[in-house]
Specification:
The structure is a single chain. The protein is an alpha/beta fold. It folds into 2 domains: about 170 residues, D-Maltodextrin-Binding Protein, domain 2 (3-Layer(aba) Sandwich), CATH 3.40.190; about 100 residues, Periplasmic binding protein-like II (D-Maltodextrin-Binding Protein, domain 2). About 45% of the residues lie in helices and about 20% in strands. Strands 1, 2, 3, 4, 5, 6, 7, 8, 9 and 10 form a 10-stranded mixed sheet that branches. Helix 6 links the parallel strand 5 and strand 6. Helix 1 packs parallel to helix 9.
């Protein structure tokens, strides 16, 4: 009579794991996948997610659903993914706020940005556009600074929310130029730009996809972009670095993450599919026209990038004195 020993059981487990895990990734997805965008429609991340989702749906033959879950500086949507089943069917399209900034502003968060997610790809990024309402009598950044100094506490600037890169860009400008302008946080870039166009706020920082169409139509007056280099989508707009504000070197990055404990094979497949969808020539051209540059990294590369961003934004927040309103 042949007995099954513990050693043979262990060997069988290793064999099964080796055989089953790759087939799990190869078969994914076998049902609809939900992409959670933690901000309202109308922002750059939402635009990117919807363009990529349509391409992924064609490639994978499964429905890819984009769901906007906004609130709490992106943390409501991010928390829903952190607590979702780690099976690859609920994924997060994020900005820096939910993953690299909020932990330096909030004492308590409903999830751990590092421990509770499996990074898949630093998929793309967009520069921020600093613009003013046409009623503001400033044609340059320097003129706007002089105007703000003449009217301390009277001018306002909009951002996509407390803890967003939009707010941090504004706080950096305030610190560097010694300004007293009032931060008005919104629940996403879309609502912020609507009020900027309507003149409810004097100026604002918003990702190019949200604000560039309004700048082109004359509803906003563009003054500078926050990226180190000029955007190919708006080559006529100078950078803050060019204008002498070297500290203002910020982009709104869009990353893809799954719940932690998701199979590494599925995370790699997710990364591959997102990067392939965004890199299709016609999609890449549409994104570039809106000011979104496609990046596309491996999971390991994105994980290292997140660690560096956590440290960088902690330093920016400390130097600028940015706080929760």
């Amino acid at each position: 009579m042949r007995y099954v020993t513990s050693a043979s059981i262990t060997l069988l487990s290793v064999i099964l794991t080796t055989v089953v895990q790759p087939s799990l990734a190869q078969s994914w997805p076998v049902k609809p996948v939900r992409i959670i965008v933690p901000f309202p429609p109308g922002g750059g991340l939402d635009l990117f997610a919807r363009l990529v989702a349509a391409q992924m749906q064609d490639r994978l033959g499964q429905q890819i659903i984009v769901e906007n879950r906004s609130g709490a500086s992106g943390m409501i949507g991010a928390e829903s993914v952190a607590k979702a089943a780690p099976d690859g069917y609920t994924v997060l399209f994020s900005t820096a706020a939910e993953i690299a900034i909020n932990q330096s502003l909030y004492r308590n968060m409903p999830y751990d940005p590092i421990r509770d997610f499996a990074p898949a790809s630093y998929a793309s990024h967009a520069a921020l556009l600093f613009s003013v309402h046409p009623s503001i009598p400033a044609l340059s950044v320097r003129q706007m600074i002089e105007l703000a100094k003449q009217k301390p506490g009277q001018l306002t600037y909009a951002s996509a929310g407390t803890g967003s890169v939009h707010q941090l860009a504004g706080e950096l400008l305030k610190t560097i130029a010694g300004l007293n302008i009032i931060h008005v946080p919104y629940k996403g870039a879309g609502p912020a730009v609507i009020d900027m166009v309507g003149g409810q706020v004097s100026m604002g920082f918003s990702a190019l996809p949200s604000s560039l169409p309004h700048a082109r139509s004359g509803k906003l007056r563009p003054l500078a972009v926050t990226s180190r280099k000029r955007s190919d989508a708006a080559p006529d707009i100078a950078t803050f670095v060019e204008l002498g504000f070297r500290q203002i070197d910020i982009v709104s990055w869009y990353g893809v993450l799954a719940p932690s404990r998701t199979s590494a094979d599925i995370v790699i497949r997710l990364s591959t599919e997102v990067n392939a969808a965004a890199s299709r020539p016609e999609i890449k051209a549409k994104l570039l026209q809106q000011g979104i540059d496609v990046i596309g990294t491996t999971p390991d590369e994105f994980g290292r990038f997140i660690q560096s961003e956590v440290a960088r934004y902690a330093n920016i927040i400390r130097e600028s004195g940015a706080k929760l309103e």
